[in-house]
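Chain A, query sequence.
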Amino acid sequence: MVKNDLKVVTDVMELSAVLTGTTTDEMKNGGRERAIVLARIVSANFLMHELKYDYIELSNFINRDRTTFYYYFNKHNHNYKYWAEYIETYNFLKSAYLGLNNLAMSSEDMQKIFLENGIVSEPDSSFMIGFKIGNIEEFIYTKELENTIKLLRNAFKSFKYSFSVEHINSIAYES
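Chain A, predicted structure.
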């Protein structure tokens, strides 16, 4: 890993921002809202623990005093053990950045897998399936609900996904 690389830091911060619903500008500023602090802490600890950045490098890039990073670094094990939101965000960031999971999937990638597995949306259908991987969600309209769900499960068996089903003009079901 190339250290002193602003692009790496920026990429990690952008991924954290997406995962927490914040922005990189909010992370760099002094905001104390829960999501902003979570994104900042996760980014910093990922960069220090996984990519071996040091306190001084991060203080130059993220606009925080180096003692802030001492504190983040020392609290990592505690946060990773007891703070569920931290654990989930850290693991998603690690998976997405290091390519260990599917959070880096794009809408185009998902559409390609749909096509390869015969999953076709039919606009005048009774059911709508909202299929989500990471932050990407696609909607599939189908008349053959059971068959379409089987195709989705088979096509995406190695991915973490969720889906919801709605009968048009009826109540919703989520899994």
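The chain has two domains: 6-98, 107-174. The radius of gyration is 20 Å.
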